[in-house]
């Protein structure tokens, strides 16, 4: 079997690159204001983003019940992993869009999503190479029948029982809850902009 450390390094690099991209996007967001200002659309857009963040947190936790840190040991193809090879990442995309939506700008929400998809896409390609080398035909068959991201619910298969690893579940839940920090963060930025303490260089729809 290929070295599991290689897969771990790929995932660590993904987290580091994603963090750097989010920080860069936050800096841009701090210098930007929404064209919609404090209008109802602005508040509605933030509420939509918050709903997506909640879906992200719950969805990621749900996926963790099935994967349980077993990606390196076996092919998990039940529950959400029966309809998508990367459902946990798919929920992360929703969270990234919701995070950007807290600015009240569709443009920034889309930018957060594109950045996240780009980073995860590179990671997924490397993970797929590792999994193909580790599990051979069984993984290639799973890859052939299951979409990479967008789910095909016709393929749904569930497990009769689940072996849950509480530590993995809690880590995944903790990572998901970080998305909620966007709410007070962007509210604070808006207040600083409104008071004149934080200059805005441009406005985005």
Furnish the topology, listing elements before pairings:
Layout: H1 4-30, E1 32-34, H2 40-67, H3 80-83, H4 87-101, H5 106-135, H6 137-145, H7 166-177, H8 182-195, E2 202-204
Parallel strand pairs: 1-2
Spell out the key features of this protein.
single chain, 205 residues, mainly alpha, two-stranded parallel ribbon, 8 helices, elongated
What report would you give on this structure?
The protein is built from 8 helices and 2 strands. The protein starts with a helix and ends with a strand. It has a two-stranded parallel sheet with strand order 1-2. The chain is elongated and about 60 Å long. With 205 residues, it is mostly helical. Helix content is 68%, strand content 3%. The chain has helices at 4-30, 40-67, 80-83, 87-101, 106-135, 137-145, 166-177, 182-195; strands spanning 32-34, 202-204.
